[in-house]
Amino acid sequence: MKTLLTAEAVQELIRTGLPSTEGEGLIVDEITPDNATVRIPYNPRMLRPGDSVSGPVLMAAADAAMYAVLLAQHHDEMALTSQFNCNFLARAFPGDVIARARVLKAGRRLVVMQVEVSTTARDDIAALITGSYVLP
Q1: How far is 107 from 5, CA to CA, in rounded Å?
Q2: What is the number of other CB atoms lying within 10 angstroms of the CB of residue 95?
Q3: 62 within 8 A of 101, measured Cβ to Cβ
Q4: Quick check: 24 and 42 in contact, CB under 8 A?
Q5: Cα(first)–Cα(last) distance of the chain, in Å?
Q6: How many CB atoms lie within 10 A of CB 24?
Q7: Count of CB atoms within 10 A of residue 125's CB?
Q8: Vertex 94, ends 58 and 72: CA angle to 5°?
Q9: pLDDT digits (tens, 9 = 90+) for 94-105
């Protein structure tokens, strides 16, 4: 069995493989065997009219959190999102975006996860995502 990568190692893999994440300032805060927490620091550019964090930013954080779990476990950058379902539950007030992913079921080729996304401006969940990644 492969060893679990650290949050710093996963962050470096993501930033190297997806250079746009460095511009967003994506931070991998925590990695455990079945969980990952990522943060996108607040920037006024992430707001939509009405001063809410935009849906694409929330979804990007969720996808990055799922990818972080897989990188930590499998060390394989070629894993791909195969399904992504987002439910917006509450307004995402301006603040750092926090995405907490957890593995629900891991098969040989498919990993199903759930992600709760919130901002530091409010404790409730702004978006709930279920998704899956396929392993090469």
Answers
A1: 20
A2: 15
A3: yes
A4: no
A5: 17
A6: 19
A7: 16
A8: 40
A9: 999 999 999 999
For the record, the structure tokens of 11 come out as: 């962050």
Q: In the block, which residue shows the tokens 């995405």?
A: 99
Backbone angles phi, psi at 5, to 5 degrees: -75, 155
* pLDDT computed for residue 101 by the predictor: 98
State which amino acid sits at residue 119. Answer: T
Q: Which residues neighbour 40 within 8 Å (Cβ) at sequence distance 6 or greater?
A: 24, 25, 26, 27, 46, 57, 60, 61, 64, 96, 97
d(CA 53, CA 94) in angstroms, rounded, equals: 6
Dist. CA 52–CA 127, nearest whole Å: 13
- Tens digit of pLDDT for each residue in 60-89? 999 999 999 998 888 778 888 999 999 999
Length of the chain in terms of residues written? 136
